[in-house]
Design a protein that fits this description.
The structure is a homodimer of 452-residue chains.
Chain A: H1 19-30, E1 36-45, E2 53-54, H2 58-67, H3 72-81, H4 86-93, E3 100-103, E4 109-110, E5 115-122, H5 123-128, H6 130-154, E6 158-161, H7 170-182, E7 187-188, H8 191-197, H9 207-213, H10 216-226, E8 232-234, H11 240-256, E9 263-266, H12 271-284, E10 291-295, H13 300-308, E11 315-318, H14 320-323, E12 332-340, E13 343-344, E14 359-366, E15 369-377, E16 385-386, E17 389-393, E18 396-397, H15 404-416, H16 420-423, E19 433-435, H17 437-450
Parallel strand pairs in A: 6-7, 6-11, 8-9, 9-10, 10-11, 15-19
Antiparallel strand pairs in A: 1-5, 1-12, 2-4, 3-5, 3-17, 12-13, 14-15, 14-16, 17-18
Chain lengths: 452, 452
């Protein structure tokens, strides 16, 4: 059982799940439980440093649901474990996601207690998709929310994702690039994110390149000649200010050869003082069009400080702290049963109690800013704009994958509608999320049904 | 360019890298720089809450290096970007990793400033592998180090990885299961981790299952009858102590049917008082062999407290905080040029200066405990046991993949050799890591070579 057989794709295999999904499925099949279950994914509480979230992950989830099936080899693997009945293995051969899905569109601002996705399907199906659905929604929403904070801090300056090397694995790297892009980042350093999603890519040189060449000016010139359409010089390998002088000399030589120098990059030291000094060197040498890029341990707080201090930095490379959501690497979130066979369901576990039923979120606005959310039951007539939409019927998407540029524009409009207190990064601000009488009444009813 | 073409595997594609790897490669090819480069991967500083690290990720890196190549479709993709020369695209067609690799064995205790991997190859090759090498080493070492702390805290009690749903993507989920297993975890809930790595898997039921059935005792009985070799009852859906009573009734009924109940699981509430109360209920009902499993927001600190308080818990499910390395979701680490064409290399960037040369770590022991590390140059005769071994020559592994059970045994022996202060979790303790005169002398020489 060592090493993945060729036909098992670790990114799409239904074996990428928790064992209990199969053991529960066994019981559901053997005891004839196949009625419709309603599950919702939501966050129980916002992370300490988040005043709001940006919903993300839906496209990944819908692709997962559309493609969900077991190959003969995967069924064979399960057979060989000796854990499962022939009935289960036969069932898996034709297993597909055949349910309906309702969701907040990706890029929508949301809060604790609000469902991001609702799944309605026969219980063996609706239950089975839990692990991977959470895996996508939790991560992508975490990164999108962090990226949105960076964009609010940057005040319109260019942001680039540099995080692949310290993202948690391959998929985290590419999904983080996508989450950042839909929240306003201009692009990423990760080539595969362009291949997969069409996201613009950026990048030029590492310190190792400068060191290997030895002479900094020669390194810059050689690079520009061989990458004439993409010229940014990394200037902090030895001494940032001398590096800026070398960049000036290289840029002037390149101008004579018809090659334009776009930018210099700082990757260490005090960005405020260095960017001012470098700007001065560039300007004094008649190179006002060369931009300054800063990277290295940046997050929304450092960006905000630099922008507020009027550091002459034109673009920020944000890596590790974005791709790991460093100050909130996880969220309290769950995928919970809300209804089975028409009956409302809840759990009462200490600190983890749930509200039953199929929910809708009604958002109220004033002067273009969001002012209040009401979580209520689907179909309960209430004021406001309903946020949750049907996105999949009988296992098929109701609309094609959203173009990422359009998605980024949507997220931008969402961020513009944030109330002013939520645009501040200093601490988590509250926003009124209320729960309707209809919902609280259903909870009472569900508690009575438990009948203890 | 939307959506992955079929022949591009996002986990193994060389496009999973930073753009600058290609732009630097362009310059190296066009300017004829192809001499041997030596790069090392190391951590600059330990995370705040880590007194030591466990090296992990080497097997992933060696597999990556062995399989590294460009498909025709990948080269075609790069051609279509219009960014690269025909010379580069032709070079990529036969591009392979043809270098040597030296490394700390996976599972080895290590510290800041110590190289975990050294790569020696022509510079276009040695440079190119940086992004994915770091992506693996950084994540797997982070999780292994967190898992080792959990094992030290658990004092021999069983630990199971439950983290897939909040791991950062698919690969993070399976690699975390592996990192935990090699550090002493008994298994994981993630089925694919067994498929890929042969790791034992565990899991039975979710709260949703109990809720869907409605009656807790009936839910337990139905589950046991349909999964007779894997019986653990989740007892906190409504009320943990009533759940324990229902588990007793179900277990007694199952005994008559010849089905053994293995355990009950607590997933919320105060684990110390609840585990004692549940233990008492089980014992008073003549079921002393039924074990108690606890899960939910656990980390090494909570485990240590529960173990110290003699909570009658037999096994812990550790999820989110393990798979995200919650208190240290990233490490300050780097892959840096140490030598090019026989000349020592370093960077002097503020706060990120490096020590040049090919390094070896000599570890000294006293009474079976490690007492001091000396980082020196390869070949410098010094006291102690050398830790870095050659693991790959000309792009081929020198030994087959290590059996994971053997690897777990090796890591266990490493943890047993930790000095007592490093076994404490309360705060990061220091351990003496010295740098040899030979190494410091080489730094002087390299600084002179920069010649400023």
């Amino acid at each position: 059982m060592n090493k993945s057989p060729l036909t098992i794709n670790p990114l799409t295999s239904p074996l990428l799940t928790d064992l209990y999904q199969f053991t529960m499925m066994e019981t559901y099949l053997q005891t004839g439980m196949d009625k419709t279950a309603v599950f919702e994914f939501f966050t129980r509480a916002l992370p300490k440093y988040r005043g709001f979230l940006i919903a993300a992950g839906l496209d990944s989830v819908l692709s997962f649901l559309e493609n969900l099936h077991f190959t003969a080899e995967e069924i064979d693997y399960l057979r060989q474990t000796g854990r499962f009945s022939k009935k289960l293995l036969d069932y898996l051969a034709s297993f597909r996601f055949n349910g309906d899905v309702y969701a907040l569109p990706e890029g929508t601002v949301c809060f604790a207690g609000e469902p991001l996705i609702r799944v309605e399907a026969p219980i063996p199906v609706a239950q089975f998709v839990e692990s991977r659905l959470m895996n996508f929604m939790h991560f992508e929403t975490s990164i999108a929310s962090k990226a949105a904070r960076c964009c609010l801090a940057a005040g319109g300056k260019i942001l680039i994702d540099f995080g692949l090397r310290r993202a948690h694995g391959a998929e985290a790297g590419t999904l983080a690039a996508r989450a950042a892009y839909i929240c306003g980042f201009t692009g990423t350093a990760t080539v595969l994110a362009q291949t997969l999603y069409g996201i613009p890519i950026f990048g030029t040189m590492a310190h190792s390149y400068i060191e290997a060449v030895g002479d900094e000016e020669e390194a810059f010139v050689n690079f520009a000649r061989t990458n004439p359409n993409n010229v940014t010089f990394l200037i902090d390998t030895y001494d940032t200010l001398k590096g800026a002088q070398h960049a000036v000399q290289a840029a002037n030589r390149m101008t004579k050869e018809g090659i334009r120098t776009d930018a210099v990059r700082l990757d260490s030291g005090d960005f405020l003082s260095l960017s001012k000094a470098v700007r001065e060197i560039l300007d004094q040498n008649g190179l006002p069009d060369i931009k300054i890029v800063a990277s290295g341990n940046l997050d929304e707080h450092m960006i905000q400080t630099l922008v507020a201090s009027r550091a002459p930095i034109d673009a920020f490379g944000v890596g590790t702290k974005l791709d790991t959501s460093e100050d909130a690497p996880y969220m309290e979130c769950a995928y919970k049963l809300m209804e089975y066979d028409g009956k409302p369901k809840l759990k009462k576990s200490s600190g983890k109690a749930t509200l039953p039923g199929r929910k809708q979120i009604m958002r109220s606005f004033r002067d273009g800013k969001m002012v209040k959310d009401l979580v209520t039951l689907e179909g309960d007539a209430q004021e406001g704009t309903p946020l949750i939409k049907k996105v999949m019927a009988d296992g098929r998407r109701l609309a094609p994958t959203v173009d990422l540029a359009a998605l980024a524009a949507y997220t931008k409009s969402q961020l513009q509608a944030l109330p002013e207190n939520l645009r501040q990064l200093s601490e988590a601000s509250s926003y009124p999320v209320e729960f309707s009488p209809a919902l609280l009444h259903l909870r009472e009813k569900a508690e009575q049904l438990i009948g203890e």
